[in-house]
Amino acid sequence: MPKEYRTIEEVAGPIMLVRGVQGVTYDEMGEIELVNGERRRCKVLEIDGGNAMVQLYEASTGINLDSSKVRFLGRTMELGVSEDMLSRMFDGMGKPIDGGPDILPEKRMDINGLPMNPAARSYPEEFIQTGVSAIDGLNTLVRGQKLPIFSASGLPHANLAAQIARQAKVRGTDESFAVVFAAMGITFEEANFFMESFRETGAIDRSVMFINLANDPAVERIATPRMALTAAEYLAFEKNMHVLVILTDITNYADSLREISAARKEVPGRRGYPGYMYTDLASLYERAGRQKGKNGSITMIPILTMPEDDKTHPIPDLTGYITEGQIILSRELYRKNVTPPIDVLPSLSRLKDKGIGEGKTRADHADVMNQLFAAYARGKDAKELMIILGEAALTDMDKLYAKFADEFEKEYVSQGYYADRDIEETMEIGWKLLRILPRSELKRIKDKFLDLYYEAK
């Protein structure tokens, strides 16, 4: 029987101090029993001799310092996992919220996971088709990659996340593919949008959803992505599935980290965030990847809203260091009704070169991608020049590039949230746009591909 303590010294927000404890360890789970018999969960944050500082997972209201009891359970927080989790919805602590029965776990796993040995990692190099041209064609997602989406307040990142979750697939294989979706600190309206979107399209059948609402405790928000990643690790490395993990919104997660750090009276770092935020984010992001000798994989798309549209803010800044690129959403494109409003020039997928080419996408993919980037960049420069000096100041070639930039945004980037384009369709749209320019301008494409595709009207 766990030992019970009636030595609660102090409660301050989500933090509680218990004196005179023995044999209690960091990260151990505890249970608080109130006078009325109600039980609430907590976790050990710090041990100082016989004093334990614990973090509450529910409200502190009703905890009586004299009569409430605390018992420590001798284990860390765990998630019961089984294949029955597919097509189910859970709250941020892993309890079902879809009206279905509790999961009968095949095993229980520590939600903090185990760090993946770098020597055991396989290099990500298999193409994942999202059905979104701006990603598949220009910033390709590769199996086992961490590719965040940098959004801003008011931009439709939720629609893009739902679209990727519905459409993502590994081409050319019959291997099992699953989506683990974790939402942190979102409104009920957003949660309902995701639930309905997954149900309507049947994507729910291969998905596991963890939803933490804005009015749920901040400390639950810290556990939510870890619950999701534990479920993903089980499906990927024990059931050999290819798992796409979508985490939204990392900004809400980091704000909860700051809130709890302030409650613990820790020395704040940049913008009030704790100094260990880099390590904390890395403990989430680095759980993605592929392992040698195992067929399954975890590919991760974290989504964050940049406060004040500032990509130098600590959250996008640290995320950019840890992950392999970023997809950036643009307010300017959103105002032009481009959907999804992906700004392809500052976006980057550092592993795209390994996931494209013959046998993966198409032999001409790299050349077309480079030419599209170059032509769009020159077209945007021409349009800026037109605004300053007027259209009369542009050469005929500059006008062609300006036309290309407009058509590129309208046809290639803008496709709506329900168009699922395969890579062949994306490539054909790219070639169609390149035909706006004379062949002599397409210097980044090999002649054999120009002969094959440029001349084919």
TrEMBL record:
One of its GO terms (biological process) is proton motive force-driven plasma membrane ATP synthesis. Residues 9-74 form the ATPase F1/V1/A1 complex alpha/beta subunit N-terminal domain. Gene3D superfamilies: 3.40.50.12240. Residues 354-454 form the ATP synthase A/B type C-terminal domain. CDD domains: ATP-synt_V_A-type_beta_C (cd18112), ATP-synt_V_A-type_beta_N (cd18118), V_A-ATPase_B (cd01135). GO terms for molecular function: ATP binding; hydrolase activity; proton-transporting ATP synthase activity, rotational mechanism. It comes from the Bacteria. It holds the Pfam family ATP-synt_ab_N. Residues 131-349 form the ATPase F1/V1/A1 complex alpha/beta subunit nucleotide-binding domain. The keyword Secreted does not apply. Keywords: ATP synthesis, Hydrogen ion transport, Hydrolase, Ion transport, Transport. InterPro entries: ATP-synt_VA_C, ATPase_a/bsu_AS, ATPase_F1/V1/A1_a/bsu_N, ATPase_F1/V1/A1_a/bsu_nucl-bd, P-loop_NTPase, V-ATPase_su_B/beta. Belongs to the ATPase alpha/beta chains family. Produces ATP from ADP in the presence of a proton gradient across the membrane. The V-type beta chain is a regulatory subunit. NCBIfam families: PRK04196.1. This is V-type ATP synthase beta chain. It comes from Enterocloster clostridioformis. The lineage of its organism: Bacteria, Bacillati, Bacillota, Clostridia, Lachnospirales.
